[in-house]
Queue: 4 jobs
Job 1
Amino acid sequence: NVDFDTNNSQKSFIKAIEHYKNNNGKLNSSTPKDFLEKNIQSLLFQKDENNTKHFRISLYKILFFIEISQAIKSGKLNLLNSYRYRAFESYLLDINKFKKEKMDLLEQYNLLHFANCKKTTTYLKEQLNSSFKDVNEKISKELNLYFHLKGENSFTITTPKVEKDISLDPLTKWLPKDKFIPLISILEEINSYISFTKVFTHYSLARNRNNIKIEALFASIIGYGCNINISRMAKISKGILEHDIEHASNWYLSNENLIEANDKIIAFTEQLDIVKLFKNDKDKNHTASDGQKFNISVDSLNAGYSFKYFGLGRGVSRYMFIDESHRLFYSTVINANEREAAYVIDGLMHNDTIQSDIHSTDTFGYSEVVFALTHLLGFSFAPRIKNFKEQQLYAFEAKKEYHKLGYKVLPIKQINIELIEEQWENILRFVLTIKERETTASQLLKRLTSYPKQHKTYLALREFGRIIKTKFLLEYIDDVTLRQQIEKQLNKIENANKFSKAIFFGNNGEYMYATKEEQDIASNSLRLIQNAIICWNYLYFSDKLAKETDENEKSLIIQSIQNGSIVHWQHINFYGEYDF
């Protein structure tokens, strides 16, 4: 029943599969065995007491299916009708379109400066050499106060914490205290300003978009976002029927609608003047992303094992993105075993509502390929890398050339320029595929890294990424302000993760959805609630500042906002009320 891509698969496998199909599974000693290693092939024959060789059909079938499974994952066998397991070439921008429209597409996406590989690498060589010079001059003149040399290419870097005025009261001082605000009231109030519920259209576009009951939609969003199942949501809610909530969930609560609703809240928040208080640089937006592990209480193909987080159980990771103003602009649920780095580009390319200029992750979100892609796509990548001093620095010349200059911080290895130049057209095609949204970056990277022998395009991207990574590492050594900004932004995403836990309280905080689609619906519903609360907090403090007549008190509120976080939820009631 499976359609294999015969043109882009190993012929030995295709030959064996066709033989199996043509003979309807009835095999004999003439069955093709070339896909197996020679020493394995010899085990397929067993001698009887008369010294006659017999073909072990059952063993062949076992090995046949095991090898097919592994070959599909590794790219030796490719499928025609699959999202994950097609030939890598089929994911990329059509080769004829690329050759014909390459320059137009590069111009359209403001990437013309990358058209010529030689010019690109020459420019980066100058930049990298200049960075090595600047870093080493500062060290030799003892101007880098936080750098401590411990031998050749062995050093430590300290980063002082960003000082806060501890005399300032936290924002909780001004938040409502007399009564908790019901979550439903938050959603209703934000909807009254933005009308985000209008984007929730019926799965069948022919239906009237306005025939949904708003209270049923809110109940569905809270049910998924707070991890309360729909049946339970109906039992603890007054004035609404389970049928209405199920109808809203089944026909209106799609990921597309939830993403659009989140984008509407984020765009509205951007218009508020108070948001600018969180900007470190008004012309740049510093974003960050991080994964948060959740147990899962049902069987799911999207779940994975991790003894560190789940013991003997399984779980998923909710990967989330935040900007400087605490707005959560993207989230996805991935297998707990997957490397988060593959999804960094997906979030940055997600939409036009939030434009990132510089992006930070922890070590799990970093790879040399991500350094390459972020640079080529127009983002600055600034991760916090564990064991920073163990990272290798690269350069265009040999280490001895830099040693002659008396440098203390030296490159370890030389960049393979020939490999980058050889694969440059494929690299550009890869980047334009992402820009054209033909395929997600995560899917491209997963398929690219699945091959048993590393793909040349992957190796070239990694080599190019080493140039960008080295440039960043040198800047990281040199600039204490950059290190502090990275820490500050990653603290925001960690605070947002605590916020998530507070809202996602039902079912012991364990995901109870089996499919990837429903897990993402729960994640985006949770994100909608978070963004609505953040927006409400912004409006609350905007109103407070507008009505405050005491200039000293107003100044104190502004300073507290700048020194703190708008992400507060202690004044929100997520749990409903007791009826006495």
Job 2
Amino acid sequence: MKKIGLAVHNIHEEYSIELIRGVEKYCSENDLQLLLFPINAQKSENHGFEYRAQSIKNLLTPENVDALILSSGTLSSFITKEEFIEYVKTLSPLPVVSIGVDVPGVPTILSNSKKAFTNNIKHLIKKHHRKNFILLCASENNYDAVSRKQWFLETLESFKMYMDKTKIINADFNKIRAKNAINLYISKFGVDFDCIVCLNDGMAFGAIEALTEHGIRIPEDIIVTGFDNSKRARFSEPSLSTIDPQISLQSYMATQVACDLIDGKKTDEIYYVEATERFRVSCGCVKGRWLLSDSVDYYGRRHNFSKKSLYSLIHSVPNIVNTELYALHQLIQNSLAIVSLNELYRLISKYIDRTSLEAMAIFTYDKPKDYLPDTTSFKMPHKVKRVFVYEKLNDKNINTENKIFNPYKEAFPEDTFKHYYRKLVFYPLFESTYQYGYIIVPLENHDYLFYELILESFSKEITASIKLELEQEANTILENKNSRLIEYNTRMATLSTTDELTKINNRRGFTIEANKLLKAAKSKNRYGMILFCDMDGLKKINDTYGHEAGDRAIIAESKILQNISRKSDVIGRFGGDEFALAIEGMDKKSFKLLEQRIIEESNTYNKTSKEKFKVSISIGAAQYTPANNDLEKLLAIADKELYKVKAKKHKENK
């Protein structure tokens, strides 16, 4: 059976999702296997740790896939076209098909978007009488961004209209950057425009959010258009006028060409797919009363929703969201005090049983490999170890039998899965700048954001357990050495129990200290409370003011909790916006007083910090006694109480 590889930037963005769907469709119709590699764009280190996913590029070999399809438009976002062409050459002799960027000697699928895009601009000028534009574009290195910008300027020029440079803004195809850019523009120049043209849908959604927050109506006051025709473009409020580059059709055609390469057939150098216009509410062409109309085209013809798409939106998606997120929440809660890989593997298998995942395989290196942002290439070890396999269809047996193999010659051993899976996704195991291996899971037809979220969570949990075992091995050796080394070992142990951001206990440190407190309470016949805390609105702070502001908010909350705590109390950060406290001698009455003190401390900080954001925290409590002192159960009870508090706040704020 032929194996088709698809390399994309990530698997949660709409562009990638549409590419995956097109390849999936062709593979399903022609009995092919799809291997999906979310490798991230080269030189993406400026976007945090995205570059770490590039480690799995080493699996793109002729031994692992028969042909490879590249999402070239996104993978080359941060490099020049010449640099990307040089990278493609390194894949030889692997047969390659490019989507979005024409590479010499490589069959390329391109969207013929110029006509549709220029029709869109003409439509805005002639039908909607727009004269003052803002253009949200992307880096000059991006081939698509450069082309679309040129078409835009040429169309304006044909109407003898010209753009001020201040109104051509690089938002890097990013929603948050687009929102911030529009807010900044309005603060400097006011609203001296009547239309925002965005070179992708994500930036359009960011622009709409900014305008809405300023009380600007869309489309009555300002028209906004995008490019990509993502699923959200159809169902957003307002629905988005955009260009449909037929992404799924492009990747479907690319898969057909890839098969021709495998079979030795002659292929063309360039294949074109015609893009189409989709005019919706955001430009005023679809009215609110047209309840079943998705869009109209350049000639005014309506295109309606299908019953299938409406049913999926109303029934399928919410059900998947609730099921998957709840199961992931349970996994994270149950793994708060994980100390061994075997226990983690048991929890992972239980998680798989409760979700849409069918299986999982984990592969690790003997030692973590450092992968720094300035490293031009990462070399995967020639020896990789399979350490875990679990399949629902294989009598639910956990396989932890180690098997060593060469990943350059086989991405995974043939006997890894007992069942055949038509679609598999690969994801790296990493922590900080260290690579530990990779994970493989079968790909189901669900929202791919869940896969990114699930795999990211697994990566952190697995690497944490591996790191802990490595630290324990190192500690055993250090204990037998001289006092200087023992002192160093003690310092490392302290670091492993301290949260790097807030300098208080991390979840492991809290678990250790809280269990000591509970053990003492049992022997001395004492009572107290376990508190589980959750910051309010951290995601909004991150989205609005950036992750650095979010970090400052987390630090502020940790200091507030320290201020209201005694030296004998145990406090820890469980990760993200979650904290826990163990307080001896506390009852329901004193808990209410503590809640009030936290509110007062938070209010004091909000008044004096000069930060734009406000901090507050919700708390759930569980009473412990000499007879009821199981930390894991107490945390679970406190978490349920916290959920009630959050639900009540949400209801009150509506």
Job 3
Amino acid sequence: MAIREELIARRLFRNMSDEQWQGIRLVGSYFRRKPVLVSAMLFFGLGAALFEAGTLALLAAAVGALTEVSNATFNQIIGFANKIGMSWVASLSSGGLFLFLIGIACGAQVLKSALGYLSEVFQLRLSFGALFYAQSIVIKDVLTRSYSQISEYSSGQLAGIVEQATSTSDVVGIFGKLVRAVFMLLIYVVAMMYLSWMMTIIALSIFIVMWISISSFVTKIRRYAETAATQEVRIWRNMVEFLNVPKLLRILDNEKSAEHSLAVPRDNWRKAQLKASTLMAAIIPTFEAVTVIGAGLFLVFTFLLAGESAVEAVPKTFVFVIIFFRLKPQAQAVNNCRLQFFKLLPRIENVGRFLDSKKSEYARTGGLKTERLKKSVSFENLSFYYPGTSIPALNKVNFELRRGEMVALIGSSGSGKSTIVNLLLGLYQPTDGLIRVDEENLEDLNLSSWRSQLGVVDQEVALLNLTIAENIAFGRPLLSESDVHDAARKALAHEFISALPNGYDTVVGDRGYRLSGGQRQRLGLARAIATHPDILIFDEATSALDSISEKMVQEAIEKMSESQTILVVAHRLSTIEKADRIVVLEGGQVVEIGTREQLLAKVNGKYREFLSANN
């Protein structure tokens, strides 16, 4: 939205917050991208209004011709007909001229309806386009936000925000209806002023009083809409979270509690929506009643005040009343647009709050592209605080991962092992100190280029409800079938995959539930090594496995350690027996570094203590 346009809009809607404007800007941004569609919607809407004006003029002329109220009107019609080559109109009787004008009025209405339809078609194209555009913006924002910031949201909250981005489509629809209604209102007001400026002022006064009186309804509707929007996000959050843990719900016999957690926000949403809809429903009959009473009063007062000239005055007033009746739905449409907009505003605000650029942090782009590791990755005085915490997760950590060696990180839970991995992956930025890749600061490197050199196997392997082959090749569309099979062989997964009924085309199910823990871990390993990464990272990769599965994964790791640079995070010391060096962490600090033999030689060393605790 251009600065000037936004300033004008802000004057009209002074109470809108910055977050609400952030959401509205989505619509303005889309409109700027589609000037042809917007222009077409406005052009055909204006054309429909002009043909409506022509219809009204023809109806007024027809009534004047039939009642012979005004010879001037009759002569004007004949004069115009002669100018356009229709001199035969002069031979028509008053009844014939009435029928002729009514016929043209009907034709004008057909054209008006056709133009109105075209305007709505372009509005629909804009609406669905805005829906896709807004959701794409939100989805892109979700995918490009910094990991530290996006991890503050639950998956259910993010799903709810993406869903609420569809409200931009409704805003476009409201705008289209509002534009057509305003065009029609202007036409009707001009026609009414032509017939009687005094009655027009009275009619407009009635609508203005109604508009002001309905403002109290708008405030209540807006409050209910805010409640509904908040509850909607809560519904999505709970729903996604509970649907993601079906096994846990059943193990803990917690289905009823989960059902209650879903029912409460749904019931709150239902009540808020019902109250808002009930208030909106009361406005329509109020409009209709006031309009009918007003029209009746116009006719009655005209008849009473006109006296002997009532025969001439009433037909003119009747035409005025017809216009007044046609004005009613347009005024009602404008008011409905106002109500619907304020009902949507809380949803728009949620989206705008999420997209607020002043609060958003995005993953780093650009930077130096890296080649394969030449010497080492060094952690130099590395310190890190998680957002909102006062205790450091890491405090002046120093160690080195040299090319071709296997380094193991051990320590109790919370000692900082996984934090080091997250910093190495660029998911967080160090609070102090740095990670140096060869001679370059990691923060100066291109993240995409750097991560392409890393293969990661987590404790919980994330598998999608796709085939085994698709899971191994996920995120690497250029991998061939032979690359996938080769990676599976190196991960010691090819044998069990081949034994499955559909082999590599077997769908693993939601989060891989059709596979055992060891099988999932080996698929994760296959995915990590499929592109021949320079550095392999194992973050508690065997901690949840049985001894047989662990042995197979360890065997795969040992084979790869001959040619790979490996960083292993482990609780089980059997996983790190072949490590070149072991880094012992405690309370976010490095307390010991050395080979297994060197650490065992320390009588009161932390490694020996850790070894004793794990035996």
Job 4
Amino acid sequence: MSLTRFAVAALLAAALACAADFQSNWPKDLERPWVGPDYWSNPLQYWRIRDGRLECIAAGGDRNVYLLTRDVSPASGSIAMSVRLGRMEEDQGAAGPGFVGFRLGIRGLFKHYRDSAVRGYGMNAGLAANGRLFIARQGESKAKIEPPFTDVELRLTAEPAGATYKVVLQAFDRAGEKLGEDRRDVPADWLTGGVALVTASGAVEDTPPPEEKTLDPNFSAKRGTQRGGNMRFWFRDWKVSGTKVTAHPDRAWGPILWSMHTLSRGVLKLTAQMAPVGVREPQEVALQTQAGASAAWRTVATSAIDKMARTATFRVANWNDTKDTPYRVRYRDSSFSGTIRKDPKDKPEIVVAAFTGNNDLGFPHADVVRNVSHFKPDFLVFTGDQIYERVGEYAIQRAPLEAATLDYLRKWYLFGWEYMDLLKDIPAVALPDDHDVYHGNLWGAGGRHAEGIGNEGQDKGGYTMPAEWVNMVQRTQTSHHADPYDPTPVEQGISVYYGPMTIGGVSFAVVEDRKWKSAPKETVPKAGIINGWAQNREYDAARDGDAPGAQLLGPRQEKFLQEWVKDWSGGA
């Protein structure tokens, strides 16, 4: 009997070990910036998959791809990783300074895998631009291989050796001949956390760095994420295994990332946020509902994926708002599920949860989500700055247009990664503010274009980013809102979203407080405005501040509000 139990336990252990094994499988017939559901790339616009491999297409500090679905546990055990890599074929000249290889034991401030994926640090092990193999500290390595690094396989193993781990890093050429080897004993604590592939330009620092110096939740940028350099590499056949490796299939994310919806006066509007799938992949998404737990799913609407915003937006009229309805968004063989709750018009009161200024200093804000859930809100209102320019590190990219779009989407994806468990079941609105469209302050001036960036551009009034980019931002945040009062675009063809929305017997007016607002530099020239603030000490706001013709909400929204206050239809 004991032998049988032993055999069962051995088989179970073996099965669990195999389940934790990982091997990359990047499609050979696709090109796209999204690496896949198993990964988080830093930053999104600097990576792509093409010809069955992962490519870093823009060099800089700490370009990395974090593996979401595996990590290294604190338990004692073995680790084995390998990957094939090579320098991008079109690159010429010296590659350095920098390194390419692995990062292990990645941990963020909050010890949460999402935080670790975005801002975590760990132990580097790989190939420096000067050809030296190294583990944690390059200066201690004597192993060196000669460039060019056209097709090299790195293999890393880690085995417990008393109180420490013996880590071995080897390099092989395409024919399997060993090129070099480095060995080092490291503390066990260095090998607990996430794993990633890295190609980084800049000085190769000792790792892992002290936590108290690197995981400081303030507004300073993550160290070593500067742009520039010449370390651009490709990767393929990434393998991760070992008894110390743990599988987390539930952490895979995408291609459907999350959804946001409203239900007003029997009309459902729902937007599914997608990852940037390839142009040769299917471009249609379905919204399906289920009448009961055992009933079949029925498609009630379909939507094409917006080419810039990567959104799929559905509008379903005559929705039965008297009952909870399970739904799922379906794309190929993946789905994202939630519940469209009945309109809470029979409740004596409704609960509104309001958010503003969503920086990433506490990302992934698990405590905020937990505490808000406690109050069982009926409605979520995000009143602006759903993202900031600094969110997710790696600064800001304003051009070219597609790279700027991916730069914004990466920051916006963090918002959804934080709040998706609330958003899937609770109606919500989001009101883009200044930082959402890459302004420190925004006076929309009716939607006109403003040349320049920073204070120079924004003080003129208008939008500094291209109109099609601004519309992309608004589609991600507002396309699920109730139908606008008057959808006529403003200048440059920039869309609008202001209008009424009724929930729980309460009529809300969704107002855009930035789009028509006059710029003070133009309307009160005596003030000498910089960044919205008067610089002229002789300026007296009480005496000189009246500005005839200046707009706050604009005539169109004022007309809407005048009609809205008189409208008591629809059970308001």
